[in-house]
Design a protein that fits this description.
Blueprint: E1 2-3, E2 16-19, E3 28-34, E4 43-48, E5 54-59, H1 63-66, E6 68-71, E7 76-81, E8 86-91, H2 95-100, E9 111-113, H3 114-117, H4 120-130, H5 138-155, H6 162-168, H7 176-183, H8 187-197, H9 202-220, H10 225-231, H11 237-248, H12 252-261
Antiparallel strand pairs: 1-2, 2-3, 3-8, 4-7, 5-6, 5-8, 6-9
Helix pairs in contact: 4-5, 6-7, 9-12, 10-11
């Protein structure tokens, strides 16, 4: 596990982000921590946008009771408290199913307790890890969680992982038919497997990835909205704007202005 440097987001919450071990890089996008008892106690509501991933969130002050999974298919508002130490694992799309045999549909747009989501044997192993977490040390706590995940990765069932092969080679300009061709299966089979393993239809997943890329380009470039729309796989600017408003909650022009103005809101 290695900490990312130069992270500027959520600084008022003591936010830190970490890269996973190489063996878990295909399952885990990142770990993060927020909260520090030395910080002023403030509550902060932040907008989180969907991208097909699932989160395991743990309040270090009460880890045995708080460990829960959440998979968002729409944007969501989370309230963080700066003085409450919290850690999280951000799983890549499809990882929840591959590691635990559980579909993200089980926690779609819900916060579901790990006790209710995991199989008894899996939860027993997690409990032994949670009992060792240190509320004063997020780094050591995340290291213990990573060891639990490494053990789970070794125990996970092997076999063909068509969905991950599609995701790893996916272009945002692709369509569902092309995704099925890459996987070597029918469109109907792809729809079923994506729904089970990722929690989204392939078309929904594509839309989320296109919006994720568009948000980055809006914040980091001066390209026109029309150019960004086409480069991110949308038919035209109107299609882009409609999709962006539906997932982000504001037009791309306003999102760009807010990001470039330095007003903090992710």
């Amino acid at each position: 596990m290695r900490e990312e440097t130069g992270v500027s987001e959520f600084r008022h919450l003591g936010f830190r982000r970490f890269f996973p071990a190489a063996m878990l890089a295909h399952r885990v996008e990142c770990y993060w921590s927020t909260g520090n008892r030395l910080l002023p106690a403030i509550n902060s509501a932040e907008t989180l946008y969907p991208d097909g991933g699932t989160s395991l969130v743990i309040d270090l002050d009460c880890p045995l009771q708080s460990a829960s999974f959440q998979f968002n298919s729409f944007r969501d508002r989370w309230t963080f408290t700066s003085a409450t130490p919290t850690v999280s694992v951000r799983f890549r799309p499809g990882a929840l199913y591959r590691l635990f045999g559980t579909s993200p549909c089980e926690c779609r747009d819900l916060s579901v307790s790990a006790a209710d989501l995991l199989a008894p044997a899996q939860y027993t192993l997690l409990l032994s890890t949670l009992a060792k977490l240190d509320p004063t040390n997020a780094v050591s706590s995340l290291a213990l969680i990573e060891q639990w995940l490494l053990a789970q990765e070794k125990a996970a069932a092997s076999g063909s992982d068509r969905v991950r092969s599609v995701i790893s080679t996916l272009s945002v300009t692709a369509n569902v038919g092309q995704m099925a061709d890459v996987a070597g299966i029918s469109t109907r089979t792809l729809e079923r497997q994506f729904r089970q393993e990722v929690g989204l239809r392939p078309s929904e997943f594509l839309s989320h990835q296109r919006i994720k890329l568009a948000r980055a380009r809006l914040a980091q470039s001066t390209h026109s909205l029309a150019d960004i729309a086409l480069s991110c796989g949308f038919y035209d600017q109107a299609h882009f704007t409609k999709s962006f408003v539906r997932l982000v909650g504001e037009p791309p022009s306003r999102y760009r202005s807010r990001k470039l103005s330095g007003i903090y809101k992710p």
